């Protein structure tokens, strides 16, 4: 049997957690799927799966082979797409990840436009407030905010956001506007832990980083809650500028200490490509890059 076919059968069985499920996914008979996996194990000379009447489980060798086989199949798919030409219609499944709020505000509208334009594509949107391992979780495109570590993925810079200290006009009228970072010690502080994990804020002063220790009256795990508390006039908080773009535009929140801000935080689109360019990835990255670069709140 063809080696790539055997790999595809094995991956389908593992993904479906059984021979019957793998057979349904591939539209093959269960005996044919069983023979294919047996032939693969015989070719390799190793046991890939432990079988019982109720489930299948990968061996250690099977786990490694599964990961390698998925990469090889993905490369083969990319080669097929490249052979169709640059004008080929995007099709297949596309997995995209971003943080929750950024995904809701900026990525989802782009996905809607993309699906209307390319109905043969199925998009899986993974919006989570953690760094996703693109390889392990099968992600094709990631929108990341922050400096990037060295990576084999292609990165396209599409904008930047500021770390801004802000409060409601009512709070500032009652408590005064801080003029220097040290003045924050006399104010009520709301800390969003995602951006400020410790009880401190860092600023840039005369080219040097200055750290100001703080005692918050409220610490929250999500940015929306910190923004809500600041809008209610509870105190001063620090967030990324895109997270409060609307309240800043309408004047419901005011930025303070802007002259002490750290450098802007870059936004990149990372995409998973092999030697060949996938039409679905290329078209999505091009469209999303154009949308993000046109957003005034991100540039």
What's a quick, concise take on this entry?
The chain has helices at 3-16, 19-26, 30-44, 60-83, 100-117, 169-175, 223-231, 245-250, 279-293; strands at 49-51, 56-58, 92-98, 121-127, 141-145, 154-161, 163-167, 189-192, 200-205, 208-213, 218-220, 236-240, 254-256, 265-271. By secondary structure, it is of the alpha/beta class.
What does this structure look like?
- This protein is α/β, with parallel strands linked by helices.
- The protein folds into 3 domains: 81 residues, Arc Repressor Mutant, subunit A, CATH 1.10.10.10; 84 residues, D-Maltodextrin-Binding Protein, domain 2 (3-Layer(aba) Sandwich); 98 residues, Periplasmic binding protein-like II (D-Maltodextrin-Binding Protein, domain 2), CATH 3.40.190.10.
- 39% of the residues lie in helices and 24% in strands.
- It contains 9 helices and 14 strands.
- The strands form 4 sheets. Strands 4-3-5-14-6 form a 5-stranded mixed β-sheet, with helices on one face.
- Strand 9 and strand 10 form a beta hairpin.
- Helix 5 crosses helix 9.
- The model has no long low-confidence stretch (mean pLDDT 88).
